Amino acid sequence: MPANHSSACGPPAQRGFSLLEVLVALLLTTLGVFGAIGLQLNALRFSADSAHRAQALLITNDLLERMRANRGALPLYAMAASGDCPEQAAENLPLLQQDRADFARAVTCQLPGGEARVTVDQGVARVLVSWSQARISEQGPARLQLDVRIGEQP
Fold first, then answer.
1. Among 18, 102, 109, 114, whose CB has the most other CB atoms within 10 angstroms?
2. What is the pLDDT of residues 108-146, one digit of tens each?
3. Residue 123, domain member (yes or no)
4. CA quadruple 95, 100, 105, 106: dihedral sign
5. Residue 90 placed within a domain
6. What CA–CA distance (Å, rounded) separates 154 from 9?
7. pTM (2 d.p.)
8. What is the C-alpha separation between 41 and 25, in angstroms, rounded?
9. Which position has the higher pLDDT, 13 or 103?
10. Dihedral angle over CA of 4, 5, 7, 12, nearest 10
11. How far apart are CA 137 and CA 133, in angstroms?
């Protein structure tokens, strides 16, 4: 018998992949895809949350700058804003009323479920803005509060 002839009793040579190997590879690939989808959803949630926080900060800073410009009427800026977004912006109002109307419109129109409360005590303005996070997470509403000394202490 020649030396290079294979024996019929030896193990067969492997050709291709077994079905089990293909299923394991498919399972690992599926797990990786689901992990990537989860990461993408979290990134979208965090991005939306960041956008709402940035918008709330811009709205709050705008009101505080208006309050600084109109220090004589500082105590009159105390207010609360909530409800539905008005269809049209208020126009041709006296300065204080225009500032208050613009702030209320910005809170209710630009933030989902936006609400705000402004208090003024001894020259310190406290602006508390909250909005709904229902579309982003199951947590309660998000809040932003700024306390700024604008006027002089009496």
1. 114
2. 999 999 999 999 999 999 999 999 887 776 777 889 999
3. yes
4. positive
5. yes
6. 104
7. 0.72
8. 25
9. 103
10. 80
11. 6
